[in-house]
């Protein structure tokens, strides 16, 4: 299961992720991480059966944990297949096929939102 872990500004200097992994013994597959001195956010994959335990441990350290279960949805009528989403997607969700039609592999989506921000026609949004 894909999860988003947000680390509040006041906790950014603490090794929240490391402490949680050591305490629980649960390994996280970190897919994307954006951490600096003012902000921390990670997208990670964790086994479904381990989610409740790792969530509890992270939240006890001040992190906010959210399940990412809504892939990006593309409005095919609004999309002009310009490829702007291809250039910014860190997970290669978007690609062109041999006829230059836009292809979407929703299973790869980590809901980072980069494609939504980049789309000049507003054709992308989080799924329902």
UniProtKB/TrEMBL annotation:
<feature type="domain" description="4Fe-4S ferredoxin-type">
    <location>
        <begin position="100"/>
        <end position="128"/>
    </location>
</feature>
<keyword id="KW-0677">Repeat</keyword>
<dbReference type="InterPro" id="IPR018449">
    <property type="entry name" value="NIL_domain"/>
</dbReference>
<keyword id="KW-0411">Iron-sulfur</keyword>
<dbReference type="GO" id="GO:0046872">
    <property type="term" value="F:metal ion binding"/>
</dbReference>
<keyword id="KW-0408">Iron</keyword>
<dbReference type="InterPro" id="IPR017900">
    <property type="entry name" value="4Fe4S_Fe_S_CS"/>
</dbReference>
<dbReference type="GO" id="GO:0016491">
    <property type="term" value="F:oxidoreductase activity"/>
</dbReference>
<feature type="domain" description="4Fe-4S ferredoxin-type">
    <location>
        <begin position="70"/>
        <end position="99"/>
    </location>
</feature>
<dbReference type="Pfam" id="PF12838">
    <property type="entry name" value="Fer4_7"/>
</dbReference>
<keyword id="KW-0249">Electron transport</keyword>
<dbReference type="Pfam" id="PF09383">
    <property type="entry name" value="NIL"/>
</dbReference>
<keyword id="KW-0813">Transport</keyword>
<keyword id="KW-0479">Metal-binding</keyword>
<dbReference type="GO" id="GO:0051539">
    <property type="term" value="F:4 iron, 4 sulfur cluster binding"/>
</dbReference>
<keyword id="KW-0004">4Fe-4S</keyword>
<dbReference type="InterPro" id="IPR045865">
    <property type="entry name" value="ACT-like_dom_sf"/>
</dbReference>
<dbReference type="InterPro" id="IPR017896">
    <property type="entry name" value="4Fe4S_Fe-S-bd"/>
</dbReference>
<dbReference type="InterPro" id="IPR050572">
    <property type="entry name" value="Fe-S_Ferredoxin"/>
</dbReference>
<protein>
    <submittedName>
        <fullName>Ferredoxin</fullName>
    </submittedName>
</protein>
């Amino acid at each position: 299961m894909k999860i988003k872990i947000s680390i509040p500004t006041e906790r950014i200097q603490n090794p929240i992720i490391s402490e949680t992994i050591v305490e629980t013994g649960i390994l996280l597959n970190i897919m994307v991480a954006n951490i600096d001195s003012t902000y921390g956010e990670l997208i990670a994959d964790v086994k479904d059966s381990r989610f409740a335990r790792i969530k509890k441990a992270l939240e006890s350290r001040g992190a906010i944990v959210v399940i990412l279960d809504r892939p990006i949805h593309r409005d095919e009528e609004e999309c002009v297949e310009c490829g702007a989403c291809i250039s910014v997607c860190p997970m290669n969700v978007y690609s062109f096929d041999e006829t230059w039609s836009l292809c979407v592999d929703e299973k790869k989506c980590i809901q980072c939102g980069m494609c939504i921000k980049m789309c000049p026609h507003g054709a992308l949004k989080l799924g329902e």
